[in-house]
Request: fold
Amino acid sequence: MLTTPQAIATLVNGRVQGDPLRPLAGLATLRAAGPDSVSFLSNPRYRSQLASTRAGCVILAERSLPLEAGECAQASLVLVEDPYLAYARLSQWWAAQRRAPALAGVHPSAVVEPGARLHPSASVGAFCHVAAGAVVEAGAVLGPHCVIGADAVVGAHSRLAASVSLMWGCRLGERNLLHPGVVIGADGFGFAPHAGQWVKIEQLGAVRTGHDVEIGANTCVDRGALEDTVIEDGVKLDNLIQIGHNVHIGRGSAMAGCVGVAGSATIGQRCTVGGGAIILGHLSLADDVHVSAATVVTRSIHKAGQYSGVFPFDDNAAWEKNAATLRQLHQMRDRLRQLEKKFP
Reply:
């Protein structure tokens, strides 16, 4: 599969400097690229590699010009406003050319119960199970061993990789991408304590996702206890994330691997949560809140911004006292400086 700098420029809304017709056969990093490779520079810390790269084409920001002597000496350039965005779009195009199209229809080994509704253009892979009342809309793809529960809905052009489970009554929007092992709609963790035992609370809600949602491998999104767990349009969840019951995640938010969000938390729009962070239950995060990796969010955040924090483990009473003192640390520092000036 070949392309050219001119074709790439057309795809990413850029302009070519150099040979527009050079044949190109793949994507690569600046360090690993060969004469038939396309590479890109978005992070300034890698600019030194422009002098040694063998790439045949490099996607650069217009603001990177002029180049210094020796930089990209043999390469054609595609100049754009945002090289990382251009790379993302080019990677999508390249993957689409290489990915074998799913064949419409039902694999002979799949089980489709009476009453399930499959669009003629949908693809149901080997050993899938589609329960009665389920709906698989136009262009949707179910990879091998997927389970679609009763009355569940797979939105148009959504793609489920191998061994995805969409439990009863849950609904995926259009163009969702679920990676292997995702479970949508398992029971939330609800139990009532009684006489030293735990009495199960049946989880009667479901899960609803918006459009263009992507969920990473082995991530679990629990169904609601009464109302639904909701994931709005454009949300991106990494691998191995736990989303508790009745959580609501706002449009365009993203979470890195191993994040845990406890039940009934509300996450605003365009929020980001770093890997391994924890958000406790029944809390709210405002729009545009960014939580650093490994942070434990123990209170609601009502103002946009970046939030970080790691605090030593201790018995609860001591921890609360130390946490209260820590919040006043900057005030104590200012008072100490004033005293030092007064009594040198």
About this structure: The domain at 108-307 is CATH 2.160.10.10 (UDP N-Acetylglucosamine Acyltransferase; domain 1). The mean pLDDT is 95. DSSP finds four helices and 36 strands in the chain.
